[in-house]
Design goal:
With 203 residues, the chain is of the alpha+beta class. It is built from three helices and twelve strands. A hairpin with a 4-residue loop joins strand 3 (49-56) and strand 4.
Amino acid sequence: MKILNRLKLAAIAAGVGLFAFGAASTASAAVISTSGAGLLAGAASGSGVVSKTFTEPTKGHFSSVWAGGDVGLLEGVAGQSGLTLNHGNNDVFGFEIENRNGSPWNFLVTVFSSGGVFTSGVQSIVNQTSQYVWIALTASGVIDEVTVSFSRMNPTNGVYDQNAEFTVAAVPVPPALLLLGSGVVGIGMVARRRRSKSEALAA
């Protein structure tokens, strides 16, 4: 009985500790994101762009093509305004960007809020790979616009490529919260298993 009681107390203490840690983490740094489809439904522009299409609007898949003879800096922007995303100080805005093109492209996410303008800084994403882009929101406010700028020098390393093709998606649940949930469930299962074993021996 003493061992069982100690296990119960340990499970309760660990569960409370994990819950408190998770609550404190999410309370102090919430993750803000929007649907990629909603973002890329906005207008897009760029130097020398000859076509702009939303090939998969529901998935936030965007394509922009420049004229074949274009050299130098190719750049464009897609975005959405009219958002009302409340955020606190130290919250984080995130996107998952997948570069579906055959060449690396540079991406810059900008968040416009009543609390200020926040950017991710330029991030190069290798072709056929995806990357999470995070922005620290260092002041409270309401986000009303988000843009994704994309660019590349044409040619780069002798490679000509004038087709920007990428997908933007909202970030999933942070892995830390998934681990938190599985940890609490695991503790409960261990306590239940030990209790069942103790009751069987007592019988």
